[in-house]
């Protein structure tokens, strides 16, 4: 049983060790300011990565989330600049749209029996194209309600700020941890990832679950887009290119197997935290160039995958299927 | 003779799609098929499609073989950036053209070897194994160019990207010759069949005596070489290596080309000619949208729509539907998925 938690524990251990090590080098890194900023800066990525975790747990992949985030932000900016509707109503409209978009991709994947990789790749082109059609300029958002949202934060001891969007990420993670481990839908997701044929025999409604998974991913990508628009106070159709890769990296570093069925939503949170830590460290160091972030994340990805393989290899508890 | 007929039949959807797209472009842009010769080289929109499509065509050759082994290579765009950077920096340091090309190709081979070892010996899923180099690769390329766009002005290197050979732009000659070479090697020997065997069932093929690890590594090395040639061609075309943008998202276009070309992502039977047709379909869509004067914002939507239509026509469910329609005719029994031939 404890073996299930091994990758998660290893990820957590590496995060704590890395954080302590960088604190020794740069003592100011251990402050509520840094932690608060880490949460704020990675809020949109974290929320999107939760959706990606569900998709990957079910054995699929969703390449469209970066484009969906960009579409959401530009759509919100446009609708708030040209109409007088309240932002909350705009949020509702855009969330319905992105959820429907995800559900549509899920339906195509299931009913046409096409690989998720290709369907969501087409979805990525489509969402980015729709964002271009809305506008190719960067549109600022000046609604007073946005300022209220941005001004809401808890002052932490030590001067750090726990912002609304940081809180939104934490709440998303908590809700989705409960959904993944305590609901029928969560169990169905794990069952699908373990094997579609087995899941069917167990009585899982494969069609409904597949569509729901991609709908959830679309919903969270939409939420992530809202958070991104609050974070930047603007909408831009070329924003968040490649965010899906950062999200996949966070999920994998968080100990979820890409083959599906194994992993935790909480692990993704640590994956996000590790990526944020690397960026913070590079900012503190000042001499390292930003491209080291990419190389370090690549090295981390490799070590985690190798570590997972090692754990699988040395486990004698159960016989492994041939890969 | 019957081989040729079955090949035509297999490629019919791609040929029809390409023909339909070219016809549509011709309707809105009648000058599309006109060719002119100036200074001993051909000019025209058709040549432009073949030339601009060269990087994706090159990548799709290697990608087809990797996908046939039930793999995928996400790193090709990053490898293009690395190899372009290596070629540019070697040229800046005054290396002769032969050394420059050799260095770039060797780096491509090393990148492919890395991916191949991860997949074949560490048994890492291809999508993750190559994701590592995809993420890290652009960082490595930026280390080589030191974050700037590295420009060079060696005319012999620039010839690779923008020169002309026998009246045709060099990139066209490169991808046509390379594709012919790879097809001949794979189809005139048993290699192609062995690769399909590994893709359909790696374990069974190993039990049957196929050396699957070596074939897998060779497939990823081929993909690395293709990426390296494409990377050098792109750098040579603009006389500079741009670590940030060279080959950006081309891996997705290459995968799309392979899938549009009729090779299943589930591995097994593959067609390099199909993938090249797929690459040309994608480039014809891009060029066609530009020529037809649509607002450029609509490019991606039109591209997505066309790709979805082509994929739906090819999907197993649609084929089942078609075979119902054709039931009056004695249709060949559909083989179960993953067990073709």
Automatic annotation (TrEMBL), chain A:
CDD domains: TM_PBP1_transp_AraH_like (cd06579). The chain crosses the membrane at residues 6-26, 38-57, 63-81, 88-111, 117-141, 162-181, 211-231, 295-314. The lineage of its organism: Bacteria, Pseudomonadati, Pseudomonadota, Alphaproteobacteria, Hyphomicrobiales. Keywords: Cell membrane, Membrane, Transmembrane, Transmembrane helix. It is found in: Cell membrane. It comes from Endobacterium cereale. This is Sugar ABC transporter permease YjfF. GO terms for molecular function: transmembrane transporter activity. Its main location: membrane. GO terms for cellular component: plasma membrane. It is a multi-pass membrane protein. The keyword Cell division does not apply. Pfam families: BPD_transp_2. InterPro entries: ABC_transp_permease.
From TrEMBL, chain B:
Keywords: Cell membrane, Membrane, Transmembrane, Transmembrane helix. This is ABC transporter permease. It comes from Endobacterium cereale. Coiled coil: none annotated. InterPro entries: ABC_transp_permease. Pfam families: BPD_transp_2 (PF02653). It comes from the Bacteria. The chain crosses the membrane at residues 12-33, 53-69, 100-124, 131-152, 164-186, 207-236, 248-266, 297-313.
């Amino acid at each position: 049983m404890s073996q299930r938690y091994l990758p998660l524990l290893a990820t957590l251990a590496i995060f704590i060790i890395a954080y302590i090590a960088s604190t020794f080098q740069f003592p100011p890194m251990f402050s509520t300011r840094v932690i608060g900023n880490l949460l704020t800066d990675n809020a949109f990525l974290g929320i999107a990565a939760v959706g990606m975790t569900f998709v990957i747990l079910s054995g699929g992949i969703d390449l469209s989330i970066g484009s969906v985030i960009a579409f959401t932000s530009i759509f919100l900016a446009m609708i708030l600049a040209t109409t007088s509707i309240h932002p909350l109503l705009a949020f509702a409209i855009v969330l319905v749209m992105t959820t429907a978009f995800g559900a549509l991709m899920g339906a195509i994947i299931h009913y046409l029996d096409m690989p998720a990789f290709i369907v969501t790749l087409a979805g990525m082109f489509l969402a980015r194209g729709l964002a271009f059609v809305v506008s190719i300029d960067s549109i600022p958002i000046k609604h007073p309600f946005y300022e209220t949202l941005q001004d809401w934060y808890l002052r932490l001891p030590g001067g750090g700020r726990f912002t609304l969007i940081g809180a939104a990420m934490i709440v998303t993670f908590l809700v989705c941890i409960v959904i993944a481990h305590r609901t029928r839908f969560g169990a169905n997701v794990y069952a699908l990832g373990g094997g579609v044929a087995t899941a069917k025999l167990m009585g899982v409604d494969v069609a409904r679950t597949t569509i729901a998974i991609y709908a959830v991913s679309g919903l969270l990508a939409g939420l992530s887009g809202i958070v991104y628009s609050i974070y930047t106070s603007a909408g831009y159709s070329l924003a968040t290119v490649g965010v899906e890769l950062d999200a996949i990296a966070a999920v994998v570093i968080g100990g979820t197997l890409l083959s599906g069925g194994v992993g935790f939503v909480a692990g993704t949170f640590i994956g996000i935290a590790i990526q944020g830590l690397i960026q913070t460290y590079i900012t503190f160091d000042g001499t390292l160039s930003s491209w080291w972030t990419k190389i370090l994340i690549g090295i981390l990805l490799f070590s985690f995958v190798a570590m997972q393989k090692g754990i699988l290899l040395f486990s004698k508890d159960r016989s492994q299927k041939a890969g | 003779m019957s081989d040729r007929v079955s090949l035509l039949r297999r490629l019919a959807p791609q040929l029809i799609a390409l023909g339909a797209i070219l016809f549509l472009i011709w309707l809105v842009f009648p000058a599309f098929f006109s060719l002119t010769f100036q200074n001993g080289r051909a000019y025209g929109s058709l040549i432009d499609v073949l030339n601009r499509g060269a990087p994706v065509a090159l990548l799709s050759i290697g990608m087809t073989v990797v996908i046939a082994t039930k793999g995928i290579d996400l790193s090709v765009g990053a490898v293009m950036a690395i190899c372009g950077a290596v070629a540019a920096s070697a040229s800046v340091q005054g290396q002769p053209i032969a050394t420059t090309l050799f260095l770039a190709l060797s780096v491509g081979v090393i990148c492919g070897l890395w991916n191949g070892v991860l997949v074949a010996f560490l048994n890492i899923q291809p999508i993750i194994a190559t994701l590592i180099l995809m993420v890290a690769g652009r960082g490595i390329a930026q280390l080589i160019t030191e974050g700037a766009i590295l420009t060079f002005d060696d005319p012999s290197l620039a010839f690779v990207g923008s020169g002309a050979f026998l009246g045709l732009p060099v990139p066209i000659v490169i991808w046509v010759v390379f594709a012919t070479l790879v097809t001949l090697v794979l189809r005139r020997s048993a290699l192609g069949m062995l690769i399909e065997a590994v893709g359909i069932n790696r374990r069974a093929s190993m039990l049957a005596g196929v050396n699957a690890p070596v074939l897998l590594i060779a497939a990823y090395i081929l993909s690395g070489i293709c990426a390296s040639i494409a990377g050098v061609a792109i750098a040579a075309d603009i006389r500079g290596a741009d670590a940030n943008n060279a080959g950006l998202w081309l891996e997705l276009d290459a995968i799309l080309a392979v899938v549009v070309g009729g090779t299943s992502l589930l591995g097994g039977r593959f067609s390099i000619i199909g993938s090249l047709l797929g690459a040309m379909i994608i480039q014809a869509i891009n060029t066609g949208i530009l020529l037809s004067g649509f607002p450029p914002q609509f490019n991606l939507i039109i591209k997505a729509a066309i790709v979805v239509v082509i994929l739906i026509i090819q999907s197993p469910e649609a084929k089942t539907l078609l075979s119902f329609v054709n039931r009056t005719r004695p249709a060949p029994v559909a083989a179960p998925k993953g067990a073709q031939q």
